[in-house]
Design a protein that fits this description.
The protein contains 7 helices and 7 strands. With about 240 residues, it is of the alpha/beta class. The chain has a single domain, classed as Rossmann fold (3-Layer(aba) Sandwich). Helix 2 packs antiparallel against helix 5. The longest helix has 16 residues. The chain is globular. The structure holds zinc ion (ZN). The site of zinc ion has 5 residues, from loops. This is Bacillithiol biosynthesis deacetylase BshB1.
C-alpha cells in the first residue's frame, strides 16, 4: 500500500469494509495518537484505514510534496489497508454542510465498523472542528434519499484518540497495551522528518522523548511498558471479561 487516495469518495473502489477508520485533521495525527494500536490491530488481521482531512501544510519545514512522501512512508511502516486525503483546507477547517457530506461519503464508501476521531477538548481549532465534523458525518452517512455515493451506512461506534495541543491530565476510558508495537509507532512518527526532526531542538527532552515518556506513563497505569489512551462517550462493550487485564 503506497498510494494515498486523493480523488474523492466517489472514486473509491469498494472492497471489504474496514474494521476501523481513523480520521485525522492533519497527516501525522493518527500516528501520534494511535500508531501503536493501529499497528497492533493490523498485525492481528484487522483492516484499518486513515483519512487525513487536510494536507497539514504549510509548516516551517514541510511542503505538500514532502508531507505526501512522508505520509506514504508512515503508511508503509504501519502497513495500512487504506489511506486517503480529503483535501479540506488546512488551518481553516470548517464544519460546513459540504464538508459534512464529503466525510459522510467516505464513511459510506469505506464502511468502517468504528470511526476514531480526535479527543474533543483541544486548543487546535482544526482538531475541534474535525471532531464535530466526524460526529455529524457519522449521523449523515446513514441517510437515505440523498445524492451521496454508496449505500446508507452507520459506523457502530465513534471512539476518541489523544493527539491534543493542551497539557491535560485526562482519565482515559481505556488504554491499549502497545508494548509490542511502540517502536513501530515511533518509526511511523519519525517518517515525518519535516515535522519532528528538522529544525527541532535536539536538547532533551525532544518531542520524541516526550512521546516515549507519555507512552510509558499510560503503560504504567496498566502495568505494561507502553500504552495508548482512548475515550468514548458511550459505554464500551466487551464480549467477554477475558479481554480485561
Ligand atoms: Zn493535527
Amino acid at each position: 500500500m503506497t498510494t494515498i487516495h486523493t480523488d474523492g469518495p466517489e472514486s473509491i473502489v469498494q472492497t471489504e469494509p474496514l474494521d476501523f477508520l481513523v480520521v485525522a485533521p492533519h497527516p501525522d495525527d493518527a500516528e501520534l495518537g494511535m500508531g501503536g494500536t493501529i499497528a497492533k490491530m493490523i498485525g492481528q488481521g484487522m483492516r484499518v484505514g486513515v483519512l487525513d482531512l487536510t494536507t497539514g501544510e504549510p509548516t516551517p519545514h514541510g511542503s505538500e510534496s514532502i508531507r505526501r512522501a512522508e505520509t506514504r512512508r508512515a503508511s508503509e511502516i504501519l502497513n495500512l489497508t487504506w489511506r486517503g486525503n480529503a483535501g479540506l483546507p488546512n488551518r481553516e477547517l470548517q464544519h460546513t454542510l459540504e464538508s459534512r457530506k464529503l466525510i459522510a461519503s467516505y464513511f459510506r464508501m469505506l464502511r468502517p465498523r468504528w470511526v476514531f476521531a480526535p479527543y474533543f477538548h483541544d486548543a487546535h481549532p482544526d482538531h475541534v472542528v474535525a471532531t464535530e465534523l466526524i460526529e455529524a458525518a457519522r449521523f449523515w452517512s446513514k441517510l437515505s434519499k440523498t445524492d451521496m455515493p454508496g449505500d446508507r451506512f452507520h459506523p457502530e461506534r465513534t471512539f476518541y484518540y489523544f493527539c491534543i495541543h493542551l497539557r491535560l491530565s485526562v482519565r482515559p476510558d481505556w488504554i491499549v497495551d502497545i508494548s509490542d508495537t511502540f517502536e513501530q509507532k515511533m518509526q511511523s512518527i519519525q517518517a515525518y522528518e519535516s515535522q519532528f526532526v528538522t529544525g527541532r531542538p535536539s536538547e532533551p527532552p525532544t518531542m520524541l522523548d516526550r512521546l516515549r515518556t507519555d507512552a510509558a506513563h499510560y503503560g504504567n497505569l496498566i502495568a505494561r511498558r507502553y500504552g495508548e489512551p482512548f475515550a468514548t462517550k458511550e459505554p464500551l462493550a466487551l464480549s467477554s471479561l477475558r479481554d480485561v487485564f
